[in-house]
């Protein structure tokens, strides 16, 4: 499989007074051209940190990529000089964020902000950029774009603002879109519309999507493959059908049970007992072991290796090794 | 244009600021066209020394018999010019230092802010005196000296604004769109940080005029141009015999500085609407 994005052994750490905290550890995955890969996990699992690290946006926030390689179309983004990196950002890789209110500059019109992206990368004239912007606004389903183009972010609803963000990210027809919880801040009905829009544009532009989310329903509806994260590590990876139907990792199973996607919606709400371990007191072995009902002695000894349970379906759990 | 109308409507609500703005515009007009209309040389001895205001000399003459009205008109030019130029100078330096420190943080912030603290610990008027004493007192040097002693508060304000803005998600989004640090600082953050800076630099004009007056009162300003502070300095010796001599330029300074402060307050109300007026 020729991957558009290949991440190998990525580790991200934040220096603190009590020593570095590893937010992401030894993460490897890949995204093929035209494919949607979802990265799921609860808050603090490192999924957003990993997404930011892909475009080296973690450095201004105080984080450091301490190990690994990020290959985008064969280019190592970690080794790229900043000038070239800036051409990739917003050019061949677009990114949208969780809160579309915060991600738009409050004092500029949306038209100005989208045009800025176009002029930055494509060197369009003011006139041409405005025409392109109108076209994009239309494309992302904003009614009356001729009026909206001169409005400010606070004049728009949350769903509209996310559409504007999408228009900005897609301005230069990227081949990869990184969407960091794109629907979390939106109403349920608007969520579905925005996801449908991302899906349509993905097919139309033939781009790949890396979708960061904690919503398994969203994963089921939009993604082909899924990467499950727990406490900074990947615990399971596979096609959505495989992982949802035959989850191998106890954490994935727990997640699926709490999401209540299947028919057993009756009965009390289930939860996974315990909490995510403290960043300073990470277990030496499997990080989920303290919360895992099926843990045994060896789980605490070392980090469990990735075990292949089916084609393209890996799990980092010793149970899978025992079963085979 | 729509934004300006909105701003003007809010500014207009503050009556005092509106009146002050018109007074300031009048003073500026006098400073610009006055010397062409009233063509008396302010350094020329025109009549007897120390005469009170009369029909011939509306504002009297000074100790050397020079026309006070001519001095006042020419002085307006110098005072306003130095005030505005020094404020712009201080604002520019403050913006560069504050924005760099606030945006980059960490070591850069530390170094720049310690430099700022260094300037803040020295009494600014004394530092201005020392700078003028080292360099030749000319209009340019006086402006630069006042600028050098006035930028630290601007830098601290800009830094605080940049620190508040740099964590905002729109900065991250701009970076994800491939903008460089300089572009983000100038095109994205600066417009958001500007309103309080505009208020402070308008008030700096008033401070600069006062500092210039103080310097020329001490005889440390350009000897080739007349300024209000210089006129007070000249009149100081005869204060008990001819009180109007230092009082007239003194009132000119008072009115100008007061008006600038009122306009600054009006700007603050119009630009920072979140701050409710009591």
What does this structure look like?
The complex is a heterodimer of chains A (324) and B (278). Chain A is built from eleven helices and twelve strands. With 324 residues, chain A is α/β, with parallel strands linked by helices. Chain A has an eight-stranded mixed β-sheet, with helices on both faces. In chain A, strands 2-1-4-5 form a four-stranded antiparallel β-sheet, with helices on one face. In chain A, strand 9 (225-230) and strand 10 (233-239) form a beta hairpin. In chain A, helix 3 packs parallel to helix 6 (158-170) and helix 4 packs across helix 6. Chain A is globular and about 65 Å long. The two termini of chain A are 26 Å apart. Chain B is an all-alpha fold. The radius of gyration of chain B is 22 Å and the shape is elongated. The model of chain B has no long low-confidence stretch (mean pLDDT 85). The chains are: A alpha/beta (324), B mainly alpha (278). The interface between A and B is medium-sized, with 30 and 18 residues.
What's this entry about, in short?
The complex is a heterodimer of chains A (324) and B (278). Chain A contains 11 helices and 12 strands. Chain A has 324 residues and is of the alpha/beta class.
């Amino acid at each position: 499989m020729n991957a558009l994005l290949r991440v190998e052994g990525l580790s991200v750490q934040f220096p603190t007074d009590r020593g570095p905290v590893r937010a992401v550890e030894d993460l490897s995955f890949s995204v093929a051209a035209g494919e949607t890969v979802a990265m799921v996990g609860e808050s603090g699992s490192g999924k957003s940190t990993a997404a930011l690290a892909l475009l080296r946006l973690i450095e201004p926030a105080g984080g450091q990529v301490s190990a690994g390689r990020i290959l985008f179309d064969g280019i190592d983004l970690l080794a790229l000089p900043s000038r070239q990196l800036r051409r990739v950002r917003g050019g061949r890789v677009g990114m949208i964020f969780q809160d579309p209110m915060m991600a738009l500059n409050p004092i500029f019109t949306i038209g100005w902000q989208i045009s800025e992206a176009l002029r930055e990368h494509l060197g369009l004239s003011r006139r041409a950029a405005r025409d392109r912007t109108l076209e994009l606004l239309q494309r992302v389903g904003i009614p009356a774009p001729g009026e909206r183009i001169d409005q400010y972010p606070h004049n728009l609803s949350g769903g509209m603002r996310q559409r504007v963000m999408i228009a900005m990210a897609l301005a230069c027809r990227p081949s990869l879109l990184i969407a960091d919880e794109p629907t979390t801040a939106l109403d349920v009905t608007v969520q579905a519309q925005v996801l449908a829009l991302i899906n349509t544009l993905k097919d139309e532009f033939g781009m790949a999507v890396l979708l960061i989310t904690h919503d398994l329903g969203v994963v089921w509806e939009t993604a082909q493959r899924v990467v499950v994260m727990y406490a900074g590590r990947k615990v399971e990876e596979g096609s959505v059908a495989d992982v949802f139907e035959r989850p191998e990792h106890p954490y994935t199973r727990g997640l699926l049970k709490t999401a209540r996607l299947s028919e057993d919606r009756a009965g009390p709400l289930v939860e996974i007992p315990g909490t995510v371990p403290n960043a300073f007191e990470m277990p030496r072995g499997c990080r989920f072991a303290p919360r895992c009902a099926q843990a045994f002695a060896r789980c605490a000894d070392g980090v469990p290796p990735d075990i292949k349970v089916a084609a393209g379906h890996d799990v980092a759990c010793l149970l899978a090794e025992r079963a085979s | 244009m729509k934004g300006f109308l909105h701003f003007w409507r809010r500014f207009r609500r503050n009556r005092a600021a509106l009146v002050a703005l018109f007074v300031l515009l009048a003073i500026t007009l006098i400073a610009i066209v006055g010397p062409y209309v009233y063509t008396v040389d302010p350094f020329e001895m025109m009549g007897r020394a120390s005469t009170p205001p009369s029909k011939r000399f509306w504002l009297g003459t000074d100790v050397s018999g020079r026309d006070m009205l001519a001095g006042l008109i020419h002085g307006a030019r110098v005072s306003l010019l130095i005030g505005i130029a020094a404020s712009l100078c201080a604002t520019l330096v403050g913006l560069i230092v504050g924005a760099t420190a606030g945006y980059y943080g960490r070591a850069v912030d530390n170094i720049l802010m310690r430099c700022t603290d260094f300037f803040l610990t020295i009494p600014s008027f004394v530092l201005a005196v020392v700078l003028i004493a080292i360099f030749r007192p000319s209009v340019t040097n006086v402006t630069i000296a006042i600028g050098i002693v006035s930028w630290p508060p601007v830098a601290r304000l800009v830094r605080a604004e940049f620190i508040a803005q740099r964590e905002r998600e729109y900065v991250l989004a701009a970076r994800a769109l491939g903008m460089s640090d300089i572009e983000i600082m100038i095109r994205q953050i600066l417009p958001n940080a500007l309103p309080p800076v505009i208020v402070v630099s308008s008030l700096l004009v008033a401070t600069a005029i006062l500092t210039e007056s103080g310097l020329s009162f001490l005889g440390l300003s350009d000897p080739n141009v007349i300024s209000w502070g210089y006129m007070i300095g000249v009149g100081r010796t005869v204060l008990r015999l001819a009180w109007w001599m230092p009082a007239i330029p003194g009132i000119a300074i008072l009115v100008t500085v007061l008006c600038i402060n009122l306009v600054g307050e009006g700007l603050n109300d119009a630009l920072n609407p979140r701050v409710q007026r009591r």
